[in-house]
Amino acid sequence: MWNSVTDFGDSAVTLPLAAATFAFLALSGWRRGALVFAVAVLGCGAAIGLSKLILISCGQRLIAGAVNPSGHMAMSTVVYGSLAVLLGSSSLPPWRWSLVGTAGLLMAAIGVSRVMLGAHSPAEVVGGFTIGLVAATVFDRLLHAGPIKRLRLGWLAAAALVIILAMHGTRWPIENTIRSIVALLRHNVPQCTATAQLG
User: Fold this and answer.
1) What tens-digit pLDDT sequence spans the chain (199 residues)?
2) Domain spans of the chain?
3) Which of the 8 DSSP states describes residue 89?
4) Do the beta carbons of residue 138 and residue 39 sit within 8 Å?
5) Can you spell out the DSSP letters for 161-185?
6) Angle at 72 between CA 162 and CA 128, to 5 degrees
7) Closest CA to 41 of 110, 147, 142, 181
8) How far apart are CA 84 and CA 72, in angstroms?
9) pTM score, two decimals?
10) Which residues contact 165 (CB under 8 A, 6 or more apart)?
11) pLDDT at 58 (0 to 100)
């Protein structure tokens, strides 16, 4: 069961979902909306990627007491959270809050699944959630800083559902790619080699 839940947060689902959302906004002529969404998602991805590279480079944590934040949690939070904000932007408050609440429950379930599967500690899940929440909050603030364009968001909701159902269960080895980069750092960066020899 937990594998099925965690798959909703895999990059095989969140990245196509983010790409489809960006394409929908851009093709609808809402350049500001598309740009704000891209900034939030790419900023979150960059933050999580850099934090993982820094924290596990050279085989040691560079910041005492720091945790390795969950990428699943970060990307799930920014993508599902931003999508809920976007879909609810032109809706009445009850519908808007129900969308945000549903996204929140999904994020919570994904976070619990990462812990139950032993992929991350609770602190690492909270770390990933924090990064994703900051990015989603930036999206919300920037989105509402200007006029909200009226769009046929039903099409976006339908496309999102199709992508989630089609890609669920598929897994992309992005975490393995990061580990390969870290291994490359350990063997080719002089400082890392020196650290390993001292250890």
Assistant:
1) 889 999 999 989 999 999 999 999 999 989 999 999 999 999 999 998 888 777 665 555 555 555 678 888 999 999 999 999 998 887 777 888 888 899 999 999 999 999 999 888 899 999 999 999 999 999 999 988 877 777 888 889 999 999 999 998 888 777 666 656 656 655 565 555 444 443 3
2) 2-60+68-198
3) T
4) yes
5) HHHHHHHTT----HHHHHHHHHHHH
6) 135
7) 142
8) 18
9) 0.83
10) none
11) 58
Residue that has been written with the tokens 């994703």 in this structure:
132
Among left, alpha and beta (phi > 0; psi -120 to 50; other), residue 91 is: beta
Q: Contact 90/148 with Cβ under 8 angstroms? A: yes
Q: Which of 152, 135, 132, 139 is nearest to 24 (CA)?
A: 152
Q: How many residues are there in the chain?
A: 199
Q: Is 124 helix (H, G, I), strand (E, B) or coil?
A: helix
Residue 182 is predicted with a pLDDT of: 59
DSSP labels, 43-85: HHHHHHHHHHHHHHGGGS-SSTT-----HHHHHHHHHHHHHHH
Residue 71 corresponds to which amino acid?
G
Residues 6+ away with beta carbon under 8 Å from 27: none
**Residue 11: both structure tokens together:** 């990059």
Token pair for residue 125?
A: 């899940």
Crossing angle of helices 122-143 and 71-87, rounded to 10°: 30
